[in-house]
């Protein structure tokens, strides 16, 4: 469970996975001469347990029927971050071309790596 006001970063096989809840921001940073490469990005809601604003907030929400994400998630993140040493992404509907999930609390999930 990832609470509403928490950012999570994890690393596996050279990739990092970063989450930021609706209205929050995330900072991606590479060291030395390495630059950011975004491999995937999703702004919307795919899982009930990520960024739940309060217990019971997603009663009635179903992963099977209510999954939603912005069509511009990947290109928006890549345009903002690819080739940069540091990058700030905001998990906001305005950044990703509108609200892909009206009425639901969203989150941003980015899979990325530092490349030389």
Descriptive overview:
- By secondary structure, this protein is mainly beta.
- It contains 2 helices and 9 strands.
- A hairpin with a 2-residue loop joins strand 2 and strand 3.
- The longest helix has 9 residues, at 73-81.
- Mean pLDDT is 87; it is low at 1-7.
Can you lay out the helices and strands and say which pair or pack?
Elements: E1 2-3, E2 8-12, E3 15-21, E4 25-29, E5 35-45, E6 50-52, H1 63-66, E7 68-69, H2 73-81, E8 86-90, E9 107-115
Parallel strand pairs: 1-6
Antiparallel strand pairs: 2-3, 3-9, 4-8, 5-7, 5-9
Quick structural overview:
The chain is mainly β and 116 residues long.
Q: What labels describe this entry?
A:
mainly beta; single chain; 2 helices; 11% helix; 116 residues; five-stranded antiparallel sheet
Note the main sheet.
5 strands, antiparallel
Structural class: mainly beta
In N-to-C order, the SSE pattern is: EEEEEEHEHEE
Termini distance?
A: 34 Å
Low-pLDDT parts are 1-7
Strands, count: 9
Please give the share of residues in helix.
10-25%
């Amino acid at each position: 469970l990832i609470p509403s006001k928490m950012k999570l970063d994890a690393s596996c096989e050279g990739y990092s996975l970063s989450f930021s809840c609706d209205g929050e921001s995330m900072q991606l940073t590479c060291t030395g001469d390495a630059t950011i490469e975004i491999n995937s990005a999703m702004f919307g809601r795919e899982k009930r347990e990520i960024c739940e604003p309060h217990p019971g907030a997603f009663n009635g929400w179903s992963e099977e029927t209510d999954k939603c994400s912005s069509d511009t998630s990947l290109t928006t993140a890549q345009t903002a971050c690819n080739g940069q040493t540091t990058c700030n992404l905001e998990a906001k509907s305005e950044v990703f071309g509108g609200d892909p999930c009206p009425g639901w609390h969203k989150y941003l999930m980015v899979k990325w790596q530092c490349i030389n």
